[in-house]
Design goal:
The longest helix is centred in the middle third of the chain and has 32 residues. By secondary structure, the chain is an alpha/beta fold.
Length: about 260
């Protein structure tokens, strides 16, 4: 099985659920990155304790304060990361932060929609813009000619619920604001692929499955461990042929 060998990785929404488990498994993998930047809104607060515990044991893990719904916080985080990398590039940006509100078509309001879009779609857009120079640097320095997560990549953690084609079979969970924002994220991923691919940056959306987390609830099908092991097994095999696509945690394409 191919192994992920990205040297510099940044993840958003890293203090719980899928994000926290991604950090754990990256640290414990066969080829842990030289730098892992784990971001969340309050790394020094109670919700950042698990990350702080990991950082105390792993010098390659750095915690960065970042709220993806705050454009100025994104710019500040990019400056901090650039300084830490000291001339190196960023190989892998994983846009994992997201919010989920259980609102139906009857109950959703403008605030629900705007809040979901700011975090789930606008956040990944601004993250890619802010970290683009570091991603381009990694792409230029990379030895691989093909697009890959080891060279330079943007991975947007999306959802099957954002698939327009798949809506009829999943509509028992209406979650309107989440669905629409993830559909927008899928479109963003395709636009990023068509634009950033020319600079050697791979852009792919991944559906982690329905996972037992605070967001996914305990009714979900997958454990966090299973989902993340799947995601980390998919990342090393991604290439040009996956550019702009939505895949699940097993690497299967999802029509969207």
């Amino acid at each position: 099985m191919a192994a992920l060998r990205a040297q510099c990785v940044l993840l958003t929404g890293s203090n719980r659920g899928i994000g926290l488990e991604l950090v754990r498994q990256l640290l414990g993998g066969p080829h842990p990155p030289t730098h892992i930047f784990a971001t969340c809104r309050d790394p020094e607060g109670p919700r950042g304790k698990d990350l702080r515990d990991l950082a105390s044991k792993h010098p390659n893990l750095m915690l960065v304060k970042l709220d993806v719904a705050d454009p100025s916080a994104i710019v500040n985080a990019a400056k901090i990361v650039e300084g830490k990398l000291n001339g190196a590039g960023l190989n892998l940006l994983i846009n994992n932060a997201g919010i989920f509100t259980p609102v139906s078509l009857e109950t959703v309001d403008s605030e629900d929609m705007i809040r979901a879009y700011k975090t789930n779609a606008v956040g990944p857009l601004l993250m890619a813009q802010a970290f683009l120079p570091l991603l381009k640097k990694a792409a230029q320095d990379g030895k691989e000619k093909r697009l890959s997560c080891n060279k330079a990549a943007i991975i947007n953690i999306s959802s099957f619920l954002g698939s327009i084609k798949g809506t009829p079979e999943s509509y028992f969970k209406p979650v309107i604001s989440y669905r629409c924002s993830k559909a927008a994220l899928n479109m963003l991923t395709m636009c990023q692929a068509l634009t950033y691919g020319e600079a050697g940056i791979l852009c792919v959306a991944l559906h982690p499955g329905w996972v037992k987390t605070d967001m996914g609830t305990q009714e979900a099908d997958l454990t966090v461990d299973t989902s993340v092991r799947g995601l980390l097994s998919v990342l090393p095999i991604l290439s040009e042929k996956h550019s702009g696509m939505l895949l699940n945690w097993e690497g299967k394409a999802i029509p969207w």
